[in-house]
Amino acid sequence: MVHGHKGVRFQNWARTYGCCPEMYYQPTSVEEVREVLALARQQNKKVKVVGGGHSPSDIACTDGFMIHMGKMNRVLQVDKEKKQVTVEAGILLTDLHPQLDKHGLALSNLGAVSDVTAGGVIGSGTHNTGIKHGILATQVVALTLMTADGAILECSESSNAEVFQAARVHLGCLGVILTITLQCVPQFHLQETSFPSTLKEVLDNLDSHLKKSEYFRFLWFPHSENVSIIYQDHTNKPPSSSASWFWDYAVGFYLLEFLLWTSTFLPCLVGWINRFFFWLLFTRKKESSNLSHKIFTYECRFKQHVQDWAEKTKEALLELKAMLEAHPKVVAHYPVEVRFTRGDDILLSPCFQRDSCYMNIIMYRPYGKDVPRLDYWLAYETIMKKFGGRPHWAKAHNCTRKDFEKMYPAFPKFCAIREKLDPTGMFLNSYLEKVFY
Ligand SMILES: Cc1cc2nc3c(=O)[nH]c(=O)nc-3n(C[C@H](O)[C@H](O)[C@H](O)COP(=O)(O)OP(=O)(O)OC[C@H]3O[C@@H](n4cnc5c(N)ncnc54)[C@H](O)[C@@H]3O)c2cc1C
Fold it and tell me: GO MF terms on file (predicted)?
């Protein structure tokens, strides 16, 4: 018999959203998940499944029943021939990597952090960079889904194919993802090289950068022309690191946090901070190499607000820059991170049927203090919409059903599948109601 807890408060990683679910469950088996759903049906409650709680929006919040998947976190099977691994959806990627290492396998691409679950990263459309690589959900070859009525659907290209096309980016609204089979690649090492450049140079030579490096991305420092280019590529070199406690922590975190806090009283300092930190930390060529998952991910120390939309690079970035120049009172923390992703056929993937560029903007919360960001956010969203952008599902945005109907050709198809699998809307919360109603 599954036991629930009352009075648990949930907060996302960035502490930007939280909620007090009526009941909080940590099931350890499929049967216990089924019991929670049966209780929810009897009592007419909403259900929200939560993974690592890293989504910067309220997508994982609920006042109803919360199912935390942390105890359903086993590796179930490793098929060395096909290089596929089947995991329970609650596994943190941080726990999956060493298991894959043992078998000489790796995931071909990862987001910036690994304290996130397999179920969460695919459900929110988590991505990294690499124009030959899709979002993380494109690595899924099969999954099992428990729907609102307690039934289990096995989904893949050959079984429940339509649900599979929807459920890889599921937003947590189709049911409980129980297991996921991921296509892996042989274990590999990456070399990361970062070097300074300018916005003009990188935008004029995007194709050449994309050809030169398998996992190319760049950071733009708003209120300046400065750019840091980052290449990550396969290597046979032994692990090496350019990390330094003094530069990475003392300067790159403690000093930066203090100066950003100071700038909450004197916003005109932000442009100077961006230029000063570029000069301090990003004007030197840096190299490091290691196992792929150690290079893809990094320790993210700052609590922050973020926005991240997928769409056209050059026009959107130049318009964002022009907006900041025309409105000196709108300040923007560094960096704006620009990443590239291959198109796919997943119904609600921001890269549905097109190769995409993601532009991630950020406003830190120094010592937990919120910094005014609404003008920046609004201008950014307006520009992204104008260029046909689609917001990252995990991140707070102001779009509603009307917007998504325009953005996603397959939106009606996804809605039909969702309504069939969850006719009473058991898996909706207020974030998802804005998407679907
Ligand atoms: C520091 C930091 C760095 C980040 N870097 C990146 C990045 O590089 N690229 C990027 O794209 N994103 C990035 N993100 C966003 C992050 O990858 C996503 O928010 C991801 O969803 C987090 O996974 P999670 O396990 O924490 O999911 P949660 O936030 O817990 O959940 C996300 C959604 O999935 C649903 N869900 C989770 N598990 C299940 C399940 N088993 N069954 C059904 N529904 C489920 C939830 O209901 C919710 O709707 C970052 C976030 C942070 C805080």
Answer: D-arabinono-1,4-lactone oxidase activity; FAD binding; L-gulonolactone oxidase activity
